[in-house]
Structure formats: C-alpha cells, structure tokens
Design a protein that fits this description.
Length: 77
C-alpha cells in the first residue's frame, strides 16, 4: 500500500516496488530496461524508450534517468 502511495501521491519512481518486472528502478543507472516492464506503475520505461531507444537497447544511463522527469513527468526523489 505504501509503495503505491509513494508512486500515486508523490509521482515518485524511487521505490523498488514501483519497478514492476524491470531489472532495476528507472531512477538508477544499469542494464537496459525492457519496454513495458513497469506498465503497472505508469509505463514510464515504454515512454522513455519511444523517445530514446538507447535506454532499452544498450543501457539505462544518467540521461535515461533524467528522462523520468522530462518525459514521464515523474520524479526520482
């Protein structure tokens, strides 16, 4: 319940519980993420991959993390 409230009330993607089936949260760098892996929590990965395919084919770098705010209008706080 708390994880859902952090996402729905605060628009935050920092909790691991909001990453769905993703290998890591969208707020941390790491391996490329599969499109739709966070579909239960706003589908931010799919939105980012649509504008920057590098994030889903190579790796999820700091630019991808920055797109959480600019593309998905969510935050990593």
């Amino acid at each position: 319940v708390c994880v859902n409230q952090v996402f729905s009330v605060c628009d935050s993607k920092t909790c691991a519980g909001s990453n769905g089936t993703c290998a890591h949260t969208v707020c941390t760098t790491g391996a490329a993420l599969a499109a739709n892996c966070d579909s239960a929590f706003g589908d931010c990965v799919d939105q980012i991959c649509a504008v920057d395919s590098f994030c889903c084919t190579n790796n999820w770098d700091s630019i991808c993390v920055g797109r959480v705010a600019t593309t998905c209008m969510l935050n990593c706080n």
